[in-house]
From TrEMBL:
<protein>
    <submittedName>
        <fullName>Uncharacterized protein</fullName>
    </submittedName>
</protein>
<dbReference type="InterPro" id="IPR017853">
    <property type="entry name" value="GH"/>
</dbReference>
<dbReference type="InterPro" id="IPR029018">
    <property type="entry name" value="Hex-like_dom2"/>
</dbReference>
<feature type="active site" description="Proton donor">
    <location>
        <position position="342"/>
    </location>
</feature>
<feature type="compositionally biased region" description="Low complexity">
    <location>
        <begin position="44"/>
        <end position="67"/>
    </location>
</feature>
<feature type="domain" description="Glycoside hydrolase family 20 catalytic">
    <location>
        <begin position="199"/>
        <end position="528"/>
    </location>
</feature>
<keyword id="KW-0378">Hydrolase</keyword>
<feature type="domain" description="Beta-hexosaminidase bacterial type N-terminal">
    <location>
        <begin position="76"/>
        <end position="192"/>
    </location>
</feature>
<dbReference type="Pfam" id="PF02838">
    <property type="entry name" value="Glyco_hydro_20b"/>
</dbReference>
<dbReference type="GO" id="GO:0004563">
    <property type="term" value="F:beta-N-acetylhexosaminidase activity"/>
</dbReference>
<dbReference type="GO" id="GO:0005975">
    <property type="term" value="P:carbohydrate metabolic process"/>
</dbReference>
<keyword id="KW-0326">Glycosidase</keyword>
<dbReference type="InterPro" id="IPR025705">
    <property type="entry name" value="Beta_hexosaminidase_sua/sub"/>
</dbReference>
<feature type="region of interest" description="Disordered">
    <location>
        <begin position="33"/>
        <end position="99"/>
    </location>
</feature>
<dbReference type="InterPro" id="IPR052764">
    <property type="entry name" value="GH20_Enzymes"/>
</dbReference>
<dbReference type="InterPro" id="IPR015882">
    <property type="entry name" value="HEX_bac_N"/>
</dbReference>
<dbReference type="Pfam" id="PF00728">
    <property type="entry name" value="Glyco_hydro_20"/>
</dbReference>
């Protein structure tokens, strides 16, 4: 993808220090013609790529004109937008033929240095940075958190610092995009950090298999958008998609080997993307039930319920725990997704009458007043407890948090709120937030890409996400009214979710194209708080130019 370049090869080359390799790289990045001059010192907070520049002495005056011989400086155009930019006088920075990427190549930023150097066609070096170099360094006392960074362009050089390697990495993404969109980094200082801590993509590989190369390509696109989570839903009624040694009998014919998963996880580590496993239970276990039919849930009349296991049978818990134990080392990240949605025993009119076996198990475990709901909540709590034992922070879908029983869902399980369409029966998001729970936004009104568009689903559009959605819009199209409930410490972030309900409806290539603008719009809204600074048409042009 990409729009026609605004400058010819010759005009880009005139602005560069001689060097065929660097010229080629900048052309690939979309180098624009340099009109010369030095930008006046300006302040833009928050950064607004289309804001008019002002002089340093008249920073508050929108009509101020830069002094003769200077050019207006604006923040770099990136997705997501940078949050704070202070412009200064100077030509900015772009790589020349003597430019290097300088970092401690035996230290924690070695991977970041080598990656951006390869992308820009530059050499790497340790030691002291010189004029023309891009340098990377950790600044542990710098504010903003582990994903924050400061990018300083001055005296013919550029420098990225951050409290941790993640922030420095995001600084290199800004460099890469700024060179592609504008041909240079503007003189000045960028202070940037995400609004929400969790930002990413949810991928259903259980119902539609995606090869490792496709997954890795999406991860590289995600990294350039500063997204940091890839959740893999790899177990469902239609398939179980990761090699297993504890229960090989449940694995589908198409699957990821453990070595392929390790490769995906290793790439994620380099790109600062955490890969989150999900084994959905006690529903959506059809692949397990096919190999173990004795686990099938049946009502009093013998009717089966697709994908739901009999949680009164201890063998059901054993097999799920076996799988969690097996896969925990394969996914070394912080989180484990327990699923817990759409357990069909709770969808009937009278669960107590329909499932006397579940009622008996509930009473035996929790006392004479216990119900089916209590047994289901106990299952969730038991799996969450086991996840914590494995060193994981548990997550679960919001409809797995059942009300009305004597057993309460554990408070530290993160709520992944998906039932956002108003026609769906669901507890309101405010209920979870007022209980003090942490929530992640997967509002299916905006963020569900369901193949084949069954059940009234429509493919999400980047425009709707960009214009209407925010992390506070958890259900329907209106934000939670109490803003104290939806800050970054309560609504932790959001993910776009790809579901394979009708797996043949789109090819992997069509899915990749279909999610491109929705994912870019999501990245903008979870990084940059408030109204996006660009119009939708300008944003789409920028996305095409950047190839994101």
């Amino acid at each position: 993808m990409g729009l026609p370049l605004r400058a010819t090869k010759a005009s880009c080359a005139r602005g560069l220090i001689a060097g065929a390799v660097v010229t080629s790289v900048l052309l690939t990045l979309g180098c624009q013609q340099d009109h010369g001059g030095r930008p006046a010192a300006t302040r833009s907070t928050p950064a607004h790529p289309s804001a008019h520049a002002t002089t340093a002495t008249s920073a508050r005056s929108p009509s101020a004109v830069p002094p003769h011989g200077t050019a207006a400086a604006t923040p770099p155009r990136t997705i997501p937008s940078v949050r704070d930019f202070t412009a200064a006088s100077g030509p900015g920075w772009r790589p020349g033929h003597n430019s290097r990427v300088v970092a401690d190549l035996n230290g924690p930023l070695a991977d970041e240095a080598r990656m951006i150097a390869a992308e820009l066609g530059l050499r790497t070096a340790s030691g002291t940075a010189h004029r023309g170099d891009l340098s990377l360094a950790l600044a542990p006392r710098q504010s903003g958190g582990a994903e924050a960074y400061t990018l300083t362009v001055a005296n013919g050089s550029a420098r990225i610092t951050g409290p941790a390697d993640a922030g420095v990495f995001y600084g290199t993404r800004t460099v890469k995009q700024a060179l592609r969109s504008g041909g240079r980094l503007p003189e000045g200082v960028i202070h940037d950090r995400p609004d929400r801590a969790q930002r990413g993509l949810n991928l259903d590989i259980a119902r539609k298999f995606y090869p490792p190369a496709w997954i890795e390509a999406r991860m590289r696109e995600m990294a350039d958008l500063k997204l940091n989570q890839l959740a893999l839903h790899f177990s469902d009624d239609q398939g179980f998609r990761i090699q297993s040694t504890s229960h090989p009998e449940i694995v589908s014919s198409q699957y990821l080997t453990k070595d392929q998963v390790r490769q995906i996880v290793a790439l994620g580590r380099r790109l600062h993307i955490t890969v989150i496993p999900e084994i959905d239970s006690p529903g959506h276990l059809g692949a397990v039930i096919r190999a173990h039919p004795q686990l099938q849930l049946r009502n009093a009349g013998g009717t089966t319920f697709q994908g739901s296991v009999d949680i009164a049978n201890p063998a059901a818990a054993r097999i799920v725990d076996d799988l969690m134990r097996e896969y925990a080392p394969l996914f070394p990240g912080r989180w484990w997704h327990l699923g817990a949605d759409e357990y069909l025993a709770l969808t009937v009119k009278d669960p107590q009458a329909s499932f006397p076996r579940l009622v008996a198990a509930a009473k035996a475990k929790y006392g004479p007043s216990a119900t089916v709901q209590d047994l289901v909540t106990g299952w969730l709590n038991d799996r969450a407890r086991f996840a914590r034992k494995l060193g994981k922070q548990p997550k679960a879908w919001n409809d797995g948090f059942v009300t009305g029983g004597i057993v309460k869902p554990d408070k530290d399980i993160e709520v992944e709120y998906w039932t956002g369409r108003l026609k769906e029966t669901a507890r309101q998001p405010e209920e979870y937030l007022r209980e003090g729970r942490k929530v992640v936004n997967l509002n299916d009104e905006y963020l569900y890409y369901v193949l084949g568009q069954p059940g009234g689903f429509t493919y999400p559009t980047g425009e709707r996400i960009y214009k209407e959605w925010s992390p506070a819009v958890l259900r329907g199209s209106k934000p939670v009214s109490d803003k104290t409930l939806t800050g970054p410490d309560r609504v932790l972030g959001a993910r776009l979710a790809i579901w394979g309900d009708r797996p043949e409806a789109q090819t992997p290539a069509q899915v990749a194209r279909g999610i491109q603008l929705p994912l870019a719009a999501l990245a903008q809204r979870v990084w940059y708080p408030g109204k996006p600074p660009l119009s939708w048409s300008d944003f789409t042009r920028l996305a095409h130019r950047l190839g994101v």
